[in-house]
Design brief:
The two termini are 35 Å apart. By secondary structure, this protein is an alpha/beta fold. It is globular and about 85 Å long. The chain contains 22 helices and 17 strands. The structure holds phosphoenolpyruvate and magnesium ion. The site of phosphoenolpyruvate has 11 residues, from helix 18.
Length: 559
């Protein structure tokens, strides 16, 4: 819903609060040009040179950006990953490619954008038709180049999300996991999205990074322009575009007050154990995906890391990373949490997350297809590299290993037997704890048999809701069915806690961070919650106000 405030240019947008907090920044409107049709127009002979110049300038622009990106990635991930950008630059310098561009321009007499689309689509197709897997993979690099050139031709500086300037409010129709890999708290202060349900991956990421986010704002890309000043309030789900001086003052005052409140709360949280009013200890941990997140988690007073999502690491590389590279990443990321409880989840890919080097075949129902442990069973080398890495790292850090998307007993049995095999081969006796993610109704109803294999369970309420309520977490059309506090979900949680007996159970889905739901989770028997780092102080504060034994038992509440 959009409400014009009446003042010139200032506009208040009303959506849904997806990630709490307030921010002020400059809009960057993110459009994936490859997904849009660009204008096609015929040119006459006198325009050929102008279009050639436009393409040449775009190529120069993109080359500059590639050099900058190569340096940045080299610093972050090493020389091998930076090589991709240098190889892309070599394609732009290839005389054959330049010749082909000129040929298409001169024979077809079409505008520069269409020439770029035609030539690069053809190049990508040629590579994808080859038998050689390494060369086939280069098709994505060509698409990426095409995207960069089209952006440059459109006069949009060749931004990718990894290049966002400081104080950016990212404005997007919908962010995909591969886009969000590059979001960083140091540049992105807020996010506005047309589609972003509270359990969408972009929303989770925003929450974990502590970036305020408003979702569900229609026609956003038509309303907001890059460079607009934007105020974001992720708690109330509103945003103000080009605010008046009074609106800005109101925002700054509320922002300062919220910051002071958080600082006071964070101090209390780091020093005291979290107990309910009736003295029941509850451990409050953080969901993270990078060292930056782990640092924030520690600053916010988290008792440990309840869920380390490893997908961004695997999605941010163009080549299958080695066990050594993964172990180095884990060691570096976990360092700030050394000595604490840490649970690392094995790669949960498939469905909407596909690393390009795996070439996972398209499936008719991706979320009901090969995902999580199903992919790991299908690609033994992928599982092996991760298990070797966690075995190595577990000798220094007392970590737990979480198996994602468990459905049947053999999912768990398979990973456990691989873990033992590799440990024996590596001469390792001290094994990491092993845990199963409970994200399907089948797993929730099979705790009695699963617990024979594992040391702990972690309930992922996002997927458990998606599969129990039969409502896709990324699908805004069925958002009203995606009810993560439905009695059916709470019953499953209570059942898991009960059947698990002495096996520890944690809840790490978004439900764990919902202050209004914490009393029900504790009464259902849950004693460990893992939430976005920025929510840790609020969750700890809330737990301290709850009296568990005060209430009727949970089953009565759920009726
Ligand atoms: C979940 O499904 O609740 C969960 C924590 O996993 P993810 O959100 O990463 O799928
Ligand atoms: Mg999940």
């Amino acid at each position: 819903m959009k409400k014009d405030t009446g003042k010139r240019k200032m506009l208040t947008l009303i959506g849904k609060g997806v990630s709490p907090g307030m921010a002020q920044g400059k809009a960057f409107v993110y459009k994936d040009v490859l997904l849009r049709d660009s204008e096609l127009y015929l040119i006459d002979e006198s325009q050929i040179n102008d279009e050639k110049t436009r393409i040449k300038e775009a190529i120069d622009d993109v080359r500059k950006c590639l050099t900058i990106d190569a340096k940045r990635i080299e610093g972050k991930l090493g020389k091998q990953s930076a090589g991709i950008f240098l190889a892309q630059e070599a394609i732009l310098l290839d005389p054959q490619v330049v010749k082909e561009i000129e040929r298409v321009l001169e024979t077809e007499m079409i505008n520069a954008e269409q020439v770029v689309r035609t030539v690069f689509r053809m190049l990508a197709r040629r590579l994808r038709d080859l038998d050689n897997e390494v060369l086939r993979e280069r098709g994505d690099d060509i698409d990426d180049l095409s995207r960069r050139l089209l952006l440059s031709l459109a006069g949009i500086h060749a931004h990718s999300l990894e290049n966002l300037p400081a104080n950016t409010v990212l404005v997007a129709r919908r962010l995909l996991p591969s886009d969000t890999v590059f979001l960083s708290r140091s540049s992105t202060v807020g996010v506005l999205a047309e589609f972003a349900g509270p359990a969408a991956h972009a929303a989770l990421l925003a929450r974990e990074l502590g970036i305020p986010c408003v979702g569900g704002v229609p026609d956003l890309l038509e309303t907001v322009h890059s460079g607009d000043i934007v105020l974001v309030d992720g708690t109330t789900g509103t945003a103000v575009i080009n605010p008046s001086r009074e609106a800005l003052q109101r925002h700054n005052k509320a922002f300062d007050e919220a910051r002071k409140r958080r600082e006071t709360m964070a101090c209390v949280n780091t020093v005291e154990r979290t107990e309910t009013v009736d003295g029941i200890g509850v451990s409050i941990m953080a969901n993270v995906r990078s060292r930056e997140d782990v640092e924030l988690a520690m600053e916010c007073g988290a008792d440990g890391i309840g869920l380390f999502r490893t997908e961004p690491f695997f999605l941010s590389t163009k080549h299958f990373p080695s066990d050594k590279a993964f172990a180095t990443f884990l060691r570096d990321s976990l360092e700030p949490a050394r000595g604490r409880h840490i649970d690392v989840r094995l790669l949960d890919i498939g469905a909407d997350k596909n690393p390009i080097y795996l070439h996972l075949p398209p499936e008719p129902d991706p979320f009901l297809g090969r995902r999580g442990v199903r992919v790991l069973r299908e690609y033994p080398e992928l599982l092996e590299a991760q298990l070797r890495a966690v075995l190595e790292v577990s000798q220094e850090f007392g970590i737990g290993v979480l198996i994602p998307m468990v459905t049947v007993e053999s999912d768990v049995a398979h990973v456990v037997s691989r873990l033992h095999k590799f440990a024996a081969g590596m001469g390792i006796r001290k094994l990491p704890r092993i845990g199963a993610m409970i994200e399907t109704p089948a797993a929730a109803l099979s705790i009695a048999s699963l617990k024979a294999y594992v040391d702990f369970f972690s309930i992922g309420t996002n997927d458990l809701t998606q599969y129990t309520m039969a409502a896709g977490r990324e699908n805004p059309l069925v958002a009203e069915y995606f009810i993560d506090d439905h009695p059916a979900i709470l019953r499953l949680i209570e059942l898991v806690a009960k059947e698990a007996g002495s096996t520890p159970v944690s809840v790490c889905g978004e439900l764990a961070g919902r202050i209004d739901m914490i009393p029900k989770l504790l009464r259902a028997g849950i004693r460990s919650l893992s939430v976005a780092a920025a929510l840790v102080p609020d969750v700890k504060f809330a737990v301290r106000t709850i009296k568990i034994e005060d209430s009727e038992n949970y089953s009565e509440i759920a009726e």
